[in-house]
Amino acid sequence: MITKIIGFILFIIFTFTFCLTASETTRPVYFPDLRCQAMGGAGVVNAVGTFAYNYNPALLASKSFKLTLAGVQVQTSTAFFDVIDYMVDHSDDFKKLDQKYTPKLTAKESDALIEQLRRDAAPLDNIWYRGQAVPSIGVNISNFAFGIYNVSSLQIRPDVGLLIPKFQVQVFNDLVFALGYGRQFMENLALGANLKIIRRNSAPIMKIQVEEINGLEDTWEEGRAELKEAKSGYGLDLGAVYDLAPNLKLGATLQDFLGQIDGINTPTNLRIGVFSQPLPRLNLAAELEDFFNREGEKLFNKFHLGAEYQVPVLRFRLGFNQGYPTAGVGLDLRLIQFNYTYYRYEITKEPGQKSEGMHMFDFQITLF
Prior knowledge:
Radius of gyration: 23 Å
Shape: elongated
CATH superfamily: monomeric porin ompg
CATH topology: Porin
Strand order of the largest sheet: 1-2-3-4-5-7-8-10-11-12-13-14-15-16
Structural class: alpha+beta
């Protein structure tokens, strides 16, 4: 048993060495699953559902049939709407700083207004807050899977500044066609691959002075107007799952083993995880991501731990993501599923320094 485990890990590491090239990289495509995020971000062995193969294509070896007729996922930073409220609440004040505004403020009035704006923006300073929506449709038949999903995101970062507060805004959109295949190659070993064809639109980071802000709708439209011509790309994920015992599995995924968008490589991420089901309704998972530390983060930031307890219709989930607690609940009515997840992630590369919370919701209509 131990020999097989060591051999499995060495095989994954040997395969990964072909990806270790020092080059410029671009942002990878990421379609998170609410169940996995609620379980501390672990998903290499414990992901389920139509798009589980995004975490590990070897999971398709189960030969299940799933069809998501419609899926919509929404994700927002906990303070995303605080930023929006700040923009809306101070919209009249922003206009007063415009050189064309009449009547013009005196120097004293202008200084007092700027100081007030800077003071109110201070708690939100220098963090990217995002709102994200991901509609999807997909099908799993036998060992194959095909899916389409679209990741649309608006990111805003307030900057108190030395003189006048301003905002940095970025909008991007990733349309992805995914094709996965998984197969049982040995009695205890399943392997799989997932090919992603990507069409990306993104806008450069825009710097907007407060006097130019007219509200969320105008900011979104301005960002969309800056979207550049679509870029094409691809990604190839490889995955493996090894059955250590009837209720214990070891898995590994090479996300973006090969991948480029507009000729720029996407970073390869080796994730290794274990999954256990000590009781029929209790699922436990643990995972280590970025095994070779290509992002230069501390080891503690790479750990993900989670648990799920199932009762009829309801699913309760808890975990730790980079040391921060996560929680979620799912309502499974067979054809219709609702899920909610809350998690935090570390903004810096050091553990426990500065985190941001995220709320996630999704709704799916799924057959089988």
